[in-house]
Every structure is written in structure tokens, then in C-alpha cells.
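Table 4 source record.
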Amino acid sequence: MDRFADQLVARGPTLSPDGTAHTGSIHILEAADIEAARRFASEEPFARAGLYSSVAITPWCNILGGTMWARSPASPDTASTVVIARWPGRVCEPDERDASWRELWNPIAREASVFGGLLLDEDERDSVGLVFAVDLDLPDTRRLVETLGRLPTPTSIRSHRWC
């Protein structure tokens, strides 16, 4: 994975709710285009070993900026959660990819944020969801999601313990 270090925004395994079982992985990277992301996905070590039953590649816009390594690490006993919310595609103007979406994050979310961004369609024109990780346990993260009132009505919200 070292050869991809300059492209990675975040990465880590998803875990069972009790944190004992590995259930998948999330890799978020800055890629030149969708084909570069597909190459990364096919060259990722666990993928090459055949450990994934499926891989999803979705363009995204890093609305919080930076990488998970640009912030102070959470303490080892802090639970982290990744949330993926999806909604029907809607036109996403460039200004929505900046300050207006950052305003969604209440002070707790800003303090606990690891990464966050809009999911985009393959043309990178319409937003189709949101993905973020916070250093909060699942119940606190669910309460946080409920406070994000300006989001389009999601068709699905999935949350996973994340490391």
C-alpha cells in the first residue's frame, strides 16, 4: 500500500459492531479518473488475494479536506464509525461542494471527523450520497446523522464500526 500513500485520503477495515470481526475495507483516494480508481481497486493487496466478495467504486468530493493522517489520531479505546448515505441523484453545483456542505457538520461532528465527502455519479455531476467517518460509537453516530437536516432524503443509510 505504500506506493499509493500519496493518493490515499483514508483507509481502514470495517468491523462487526463489537469490533471483533473484519467485515470489509474502505479505501478513499484521490485518483486522476475512474479508470485509475479501478486500477487501484484491482491492485489492492486484499483484492489481489481474492478476499473481497465485491468492490464498489464511487467518485467523491472531499468536502472536509485533508486526509485521516492530517489530524490527531483518536485514542486506542475510541470507537470510530463510517456512514454511507445514498439518495437519488441530484445536480450538485460546485458551491455545494464547498462551504454549504461543511455547514452541515455540527461542532461535535467537526471535532470528531476523520473524513467526509459527497458521493458523485460517474459523470461527477450529480450527488448520489454522502460518506463520512467520525470518532464516535454507533449510537452517537446515529444521533449525529439525525441532526443533518439539510441532506436530501436518503434511500439508504449504512453505518459500520471502522478502524
